[in-house]
Design a protein that fits this description.
This protein is of the alpha+beta class. The protein has 2 helices and 5 strands, in the order αβββββα. It has a single domain, classed as Beta Barrel (OB fold (Dihydrolipoamide Acetyltransferase, E2P)). The longest helix is centred in the first third of the chain and has 30 residues, at about 10-40.
């Protein structure tokens, strides 16, 4: 507790202001990077909700997704109709910054989709590409079985 009538020094005020300004600039740069990332090339993959927890402002989910064999983890506000944990949903990510993502909790992944290209889809409903990928996987499996 501070003594009655305490007045911080001018130096303390200046240092506090500088720290606050640095924090504000850093926060704005993160938001700007995220917005720019989604303005460029994006792709979609499947994400799985791994956890749900309570924070001061409500509930949040944690989810994982994979891009080119690299596993990423992110967290977002919980949509009350989500199946958590274990629910699988479409995740939009930046090709340039794959760690920047957004999960669509209102768009569960069709249970028939069990394989996805390592670099994801260009669109959530790019089933032609998906079918080509499945055919390629089947051909590669046949090749491996014939080589044994």
């Amino acid at each position: 507790m501070l003594p009655k009538g305490y007045q911080p020094s001018k130096r303390t005020g200046i240092i506090s202001g500088i720290i606050l300004a640095i924090f504000a600039i850093y926060s704005l740069s993160l938001v700007s990077k995220r917005n720019r990332a989604f303005d460029r090339e994006i792709r979609f993959t499947i994400g799985e909700i791994t956890d749900i927890y309570i924070i001061a402002s409500g509930r949040e989910i944690e989810y994982t997704y994979s891009v080119n064999g690299v596993e990423y983890e992110d967290a977002r506000g919980y949509a009350y109709n989500s199946e958590a944990p274990g629910g699988k949903y479409w995740v939009k990510y930046s090709v340039e910054y794959p760690e920047i993502s957004e999960i669509y909790q209102n768009m569960p992944v069709d249970a028939r989709i069990d394989t996805i290209p390592p670099d994801g889809f260009k669109g959530r409903y790019d089933y032609d590409q998906f079918l080509q990928w499945k055919r390629w996987v089947a051909q590669e499996r046949k090749k491996l079985n014939h080589e044994d």
